[in-house]
Every structure is written in structure tokens, then in C-alpha cells.
Amino acid sequence: MNDDHSGHSTGLNLGCGTRIFKSTSELRWINVDLVRSEGVDMVMDWRELTDEWDITKFDLIVAHQSFEHVNCGMQPIKQCYAILKKGGSLIISVPDLRKLAQLWLTHQLSTQIYLTNIYGPYDGTEASIHRWGFDREYLMDQLKREAPWSAVKDFDYRPIPGADIARDSRWILCLEAIK
């Protein structure tokens, strides 16, 4: 089942930033980011996945609050599909711009939280800027258009060993695409 010969399933945490996933006895994580920081296993542009892993297949790929940091091209979806094992999942979590706007306009969300989710949590690096936006319909459409998934659905927030996936359904959109 695994390419690492250790008995572990393997997960890829794309655009991890400071949200480092910890390997467990069940799931070995590789944390990838464009910026070197503590806990990042590989410093690379994760939009070029197939160049790095043309043989390895992953059980799980998580893009937690990272797709909004890249330009509108959906090439990473195709690349994630290519490096997932059959039955593997891609979980994408992004700010839901439609929900954010509704909450902000009805005074249920502070301007600071709204703007941070629109523009990004700028930390002095270009990688922290948000460059694209999503709502459920748009992301669902992009996933279905870019790869022949067996299913695309709302993520059920089941526990994933070692992963820390933010869960605020008020404005976070989280979908799962299964190969």
C-alpha cells in the first residue's frame, strides 16, 4: 500500500506555512512550503508537484488554506490527482468568500477577520498574500473540471492522524476529492 516501505500511509501537507502536520504511527506527513521555516520538510513551489514526485503516490494530500495564495490556474489540482494513489483523497480548505461577505455585511464578523481572509495574513512575504478566491460552487466546479475524481464532497472533518485542519464552518470551505 505504501511507497515508503515503512507500513505508514503517506500524506502531503501543501503550502503548510506554520501549520505543520506531525507524523504518527499511522500516517507519515511531508510538509511542503515555498518559505523555509521550522517543521517544513521540503522548500519548493508546490504548484510543480509532478516534477518532484513522478513515482511516489500519496494516500492523502491536504492543501490547508493554501490554494488562495496562488494565481487562478488550477494546475495543482491535476498534479495532486496524478500523485495520489487510487482511493486517495485531496482535501482543500480555503476561505469561503461568499460566506465571509455575508457575515461581514450582517455585522457577524469583524472587519479585521474579513480583510485578513480576503487579502491574506501578510507576514512580509509574497507567499502570504491571497491571490485568488473561492466559494463552494466555484471550487467544486474546478475540482470536477480538472480531474476525473470518483467523488467530490464536503469534507466531514473526521480526525486525521497528525493533521490540524481548522474548522470554522462559518467561513471556511473544506472539500474532499477522492481518486
- Strand order within the widest beta sheet: 3-2-1-4-5-7-6
H-E string: EEEHEHEHHHEE
Q: Supply Rg.
A: 16 Å
How far apart are the first and last residues' alpha carbons, in Å? 15 Å
Question: Which residues sit in consecutive blocks of at least 5 with pLDDT less than 50?
Answer: 1-5
Shape: globular
CATH class: Alpha Beta
Oligomer: single chain
Query: Number of helix segments?
Result: 5
The count of strands amounts to: 7
Q: What is the makeup of the main sheet?
A: 7 strands, mixed
Q: Would you identify the CATH H-level superfamily?
A: Vaccinia Virus protein VP39
Helix content: 10-25%
Summarize the structure.
The chain is α/β, with parallel strands linked by helices.
Protein architecture, described:
The chain is α/β, with parallel strands linked by helices and 179 residues long. The protein has a single domain, classed as Rossmann fold (3-Layer(aba) Sandwich). Helices cover 23% and strands 25% of the residues. The protein has helices spanning 49-52, 75-83, 97-105, 111-119, 136-146, and strands at residues 9-14, 27-33, 42-43, 58-64, 84-95, 151-154, 172-178. It has a seven-stranded mixed β-sheet with strand order 3-2-1-4-5-7-6. α3 runs antiparallel to α4. The radius of gyration is 16 Å and the shape is globular. Mean pLDDT is 89; it is low at 1-5.
